[in-house]
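Hi R.,

Here's the chain you asked about this morning:
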Amino acid sequence: MVIRVFNSSNSLVGFVQQKWSLFSPSLSVHNSEGTRTMDISGSWSAARCHTEQEFQVTSLEGQLVAIIWKRWPGFNEDYNMDHDFFGLDISASLSPTDKALLLAATFLLNYMFFEMS
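And the predicted structure, written out as tokens:
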């Protein structure tokens, strides 16, 4: 799976692509030239519901630059509904382009692993 990010003038900003992995979710973030800039990895079991998940975003040097997280609010009268909370904690040193790509990665992870409908 791939999600591409475009700016307001319809130029490619970059893309986030799923990497093959047997057990754990793994994605790579690429700039507009196709060069890999960051990697995203999750726990070995990305369960759809009743769990909290964190996906670590690392630079190519291995430094943690962001965390994409999903929180489950717990049981309530709407427990059968799709009411998970997603967040993105980003290092202030990242460029606006990288931040846009990580926001797209958050949407892609939600679609790939947690959408129920």
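The mean pLDDT is 84.

Let me know if you need anything else.
M.
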